[in-house]
Amino acid sequence: MADLEMKRHFTAPPEKVFDFVTQPQHLTKWWGPEGITLAEHVLDFSSPGPWMSIMKNSEGGIHKVTGEILMVEHGKSVTFTWAWHDDDDKRGHESEVRFTVQSDGDGGTDFTMLHRNLADDDSAQNHESGWTSSFTKLEKYVDQVAV
């Protein structure tokens, strides 16, 4: 099993960043790597319950991921499970993701994503690439909306 931790800094305050990573109207603006569109989704990380997204790449390939929101500490963190589906829609290995936001003490936000229990190092590398691209979209979105 492998873990992946990524950190970002935003000049926006923590309460805004928390909304951007939990509220459906914001999640849909940055969810998924660059070049990916959301074909279908149930993306609301503001309270416990199921979530899902079906992402479509430019070649028409479909990538489905689902999970359960396990815990929401409003304004601080959200924890959810994560599992990809195969071509037969069979759910694969389950891992766990936690988004954490906290004040940087200067009006901005320190954001941490911890993706735990990935199947192996290759999976961690693939997820690092996807999350990096997604967080690039998030950074652009926060800069546009939080001004």
UniProtKB/TrEMBL annotation:
Family membership noted in the UniProt record: Belongs to the AHA1 family.
Q: What is the lineage of its organism?
A: Bacteria, Pseudomonadati, Pseudomonadota, Alphaproteobacteria, Sphingomonadales
Domain named Activator of Hsp90 ATPase homologue 1/2-like C-terminal is located at 12-142
Family matches, as InterPro entries: ASHA1/2-like_C, START-like_dom_sf
A Pfam family cross-referenced in the UniProt record is: AHSA1
Protein name per UniProt: SRPBCC domain-containing protein
